[in-house]
Structures are given as structure tokens and as C-alpha cells.
Amino acid sequence: MEEARAQRVVVVGGGTSGWMTAAALAKLLPERCDVHLIESEAIGIIGVGEATLPHIRAFNERLGIAEAEFMAATRATFKLGIEFRNWGRIGDSYIHPFGTFGRGTGAVQFHHYYSRLAQAGITLPPIEAFSMACSLARANRFGAPSGDPREIASTFGYAYQFDAVAFAPYLRRLAEQLGARRSEGRIVDVDRDSVSGDVAAVILEDGRRIEGDLFVDCSGFVALLIGKAMGEPFDDWSHWLPADRAVALPCRTETAVTPFTSAIAMPSGWRWRIPLQHRTGNGYVFASDFITETAAADALTAAVEGAPMADPRVLRFKAGRRIRSWVNNVVSIGLSSGFLEPLESTSLYLVQQAITALVELFPERAISPLDRDEFNRLINMEYDRVRDFLILHYHATQRDDSDFWNYVRTMAIPDSLAEKIELFRRRGRVVKYREGAFLDASWVSVYLGQGVMPESYDPRAVGPSIDSLVSGLQRIRGEIGAAIADMPDHVAFLGDYCPMPAAA
After folding, report:
1. Domain-terminating residue out of 294, 315, 336
2. For residue range 392-431, what is the model confidence (pLDDT) as tens digits?
3. pTM surpassing 0.85?
4. Range(s) of the domain holding residue 437
């Protein structure tokens, strides 16, 4: 069989998504594609601090990125989960962990036993007390997970909190070492084939014409190719996710460098706190129908826990996604494909999933409509499932103290989410997916953390006696406590493992 020639891949736009794409294609498909990235230094990137999901570790490993080196270069800290404050009710706090509740083994999930005990009248601590990840985060400690599945310290994972502005240059160096080329310039025109409708070339401001076989649109909200050139419609989800602004403000770190991101509910949205090694990232994600940009900036400035290091910066966006992310020979990745607010740190996850799908479905010669349709199915599924998970946080609230919270509490929600909530409320069941970002423990943490309590539980949970279940829970807490006691303080671990450069 004749080998397919290398495809000319033109990546439009740099930033994190552009350089993630370029590095991955150059690393994973070195014989299949010639990667050429175009970006303009005059166009800034959206980088306000980045919190991630554990999937980023596998992506970095596939690219051969050494963890300690990457973390030092991006001033990164570890992330064991996300703390949610004031979401169900003012005063509430729970953590969505990167790991399981209990041991995460057996045919019956831990939360069913927990529910059985609660319904039997047994006084229990919050379910996070039985999570290694949550307990480790609350203790402000960190250690590498155990590779021995018999140990409780094997039941958690982790992600990173890092400086997004530093990540793109790090990836650029890697991509160029792997053979990707970069051209500086602003794109002023797109040349499309009059017959096929494919993009034939992009035209730069200085007159250069860059031809390609496959074009990857990483141009951000501008959506230069997928939106402006191809005219692919955008499915607007702002009626379910009404937050359409964020004001960002870095500050000096004067409080704990926690191994978790915080999402703190505010009267018209929520506030993020992302502790890095050299500063703390803060932002207020809000709905402009309920508060002005000036008022949001003032509220954020008053709330940050250290001296501000810059003026507040406003970002504007709309929740939703393209109907199709791959049209003709244009693949959109990142913000050009869609946007879901940073509540559960899914931005880079969605970039990563699109890159993975593109690698697996990369055209051999001509683009197959079947491959293109499969890519769009996968990406739409990822966006739709993340959308439902984000809406759950807003809708499953008891807050009635502001117009914003009254709106999201009472709004109509997608049928797909309504069915998930009802199934959990009736039977404690979490809808299972073979694919998707969030596993059972993620949904359980939000359901229970925000007061969606099951009325029943898995009938197999009646097997053990109440006394044996109570003893089992006590044993798990004891094992977690002993494991945490052997782990160092988070900052101390960072200092030994990945200290940032002295000049930083």
C-alpha cells in the first residue's frame, strides 16, 4: 500500500491551544504532517492563570514533558480538586475531588453505603471525610499517589495550577524542537477553493500566502476560519449559563498556597482563586444582566486576599459551541470551537480532547466525511456533557438572596440534566458514560455538596450490617489520617520538587 504523503497542517493562532496542537501533531504524527503555526505578537493571549483537570498529565506525558521541569517553568502548584464555597447555601463548603470516595472498589459504590447509613439515622461527617483527595487538600499537604492499589493513598489523582502565559512559550519551544515551524504575521484574508469550499490558503498582512491541506483554527473568540470564513453557526447556551463576563486580578500571595482551586459563589456569579508559586490568580465570573463591570471589578478588588499586582482586566464571552467543529478542511480547537466558563477547569481538557480526536482521525489523503462526522460527534458530546455538569452547580442551589441565584435556581434546564438529577434523587444512581470528563465521584460531590439527597440506594448496599459499615467507615478515616500524616506540607513539597527559577 502506498504511504500517504505528509499533510500540510496550518495552525492559525498561537496561545495555549495553538501550541498544544502544534506540539502534539509534531510529536505524535511526525511522518504524517508538516506543522506550520501562524501567530501575531500584536494579538495578545487570554492568560489569567490556568487550573486544569488530571487529564493534562497524560497529555504532557505523551509529549515527553518532564513534570518537575514543566511545573518550575510555569510556576505551577498541585491541584487535588476544586473547593466550592457558598453554592448550595451561604456558609457551605465542599470539595469536588480528583479521586474516589472510600476505596472506589467493589460492585456497589461508596455513596450508596453512605446513604444507607444516613437514612438509618447514623450521624456522619460530610462524605468528603472519606476521600483521600479531599482530606489531603483540607490538610494543605501533598504527596505522590501510591502505585499500590491496596493502599488508600492510591485512590486520588491530581492536576496542576499554572501560569497560562508561561505555558504557551514552553510548548512553543517543544514544538519547534519537534519540527514545527512558526510564522509571525496577522492574517488579513482567507482564500477558499471556489468548487470545494475548502480553505486553500491564508493571506498575511505583508502579502505572504500560506497554503495548506488542513487548517486548524486556534484563533480564539475571533474564530477567524470556522466562524468568519466558513460561517459555521454558534449554538448559544447563555440561557442556561448566563455568566458572560469575567474580571481578572492577580494578587500577591498572602494566604495559603492551597493544593486546590477555590470557586466562591458571589451575588451575581462566582469568584475563582488559583494559587501559583509566585502569585494568586483571582477572577469574578458574572452575568452582565445582573451586575455592571465596574461593580464586579470593585467587588473582586475588595475580596482578594493580597495586594493587587495589576489593574482588573475584563473578559467578555458567550457560552456555547459551534454546531460542527470540523467543517470542510477546517478544524476548530479551543475558544474558536466553543466556550464553557472556567467553573470546573474544563478549558484545556476540551482542547486536549479535540487534539486527541484529531490525531486519531487524522486524514490519510483526502478528508473522509465519516472521520469528520465522528470528530464532530465526539466534540459535541464532550461539550454537551460538560455543559450539563456546569448547569448542575447553578441549578442545584437553595440560595434566594439575589436576582441571579433566583434565576438559575428556577430556570428550565436541559432534559438530559433533568433526567440525571431525577435518577440520582430517586435511586442514588449516577448516569454512566464510557466517554466524558467527569466520573461518578465528581457528580456525587456536587449532588451531596449542594443538597441533592437520594431517597434510596442500591439494593445491594443492604448486604453488610449497619455495625460493619460503621466500622468500615471508621477504618477508612483512620487509613486516610495515617497516610496524610506521612505527607509533607504542599509548599514544602513544591520547594523540593519543582522550585521556580530564582529570577522569577
Report:
1. 315
2. 999 999 999 999 999 999 999 999 999 999 999 999 999 8
3. yes
4. 98-157+399-490
